[in-house]
Design brief:
Length: about 55
């Protein structure tokens, strides 16, 4: 019990950071399924534009 009290701040911060990471991953997966790009910018000037999106 003393260990839990001594490390409560670290545990809370770690749980908050883990939750943020999970939310970011969930958003990225949802965006990927919707066909959205993760970079958020236009593809016309990107060097990898042919690798990211298939040719139409």
């Amino acid at each position: 019990m003393d260990w839990l009290k001594a490390n409560l701040g670290t545990i809370v911060v770690s749980l908050i950071l883990a939750a943020i990471v999970v939310l970011i991953i969930v958003k990225m997966v949802r965006d990927k399924k919707k066909g959205k790009s993760s970079c958020g910018c236009g593809c016309s000037s990107c060097a990898m534009r042919d690798s990211c999106h298939g040719k139409k």
